[in-house]
Amino acid sequence: MSALNRRIRNMEDEMEQLSTKLKSTNEKLEDIAKAADESERSIYTLQLNHITFMLMSPDIFCDFVLLFIASLVAFFVTPFNLSTYFVSANISTH
């Protein structure tokens, strides 16, 4: 009977230790989640600030739009020749 009581006591102690570890792990996960939320918010804020700056600076915004349009035109109008790419990059096609 005393062996059974010791075993029950050991299991209760082990359960208490596991409960403490679980609580600690949950607290760490909550801290990580808060940090992730704050990081995501700061990235969103930086993006908004950048967009606001671009919209408030017409010259920069126009340059950005013109660069974007030029990139699209170059991509869709210029024929893409892989052999030219490989030659200019010194890559063998064989």
Description:
The chain has 94 residues and is an all-alpha fold. It folds into two domains: 1-56; 58-94. The protein has three helices and no strands. The chain has helices at 2-56, 58-77, 82-88. The protein is rod-shaped and about 90 Å long. The termini are far apart. The model has no long low-confidence stretch (mean pLDDT 76).
* Fraction of helical residues: over 70%
Mean pLDDT: 76
Overall geometry comes to rod-shaped
Number of strands: 0
Distance N terminus to C terminus?
Answer: 82 Å
Taking all Cα atoms into account, the compactness measure Rg is 31 Å
Total number of distinct structural domains = 2
- Characterize the main sheet: none
List unreliable stretches of 5+ residues.
Answer: none
Number of helices: 3
Q: How are the SSEs placed, and which strands pair?
A:
Blueprint: H1 2-56, H2 58-77, H3 82-88
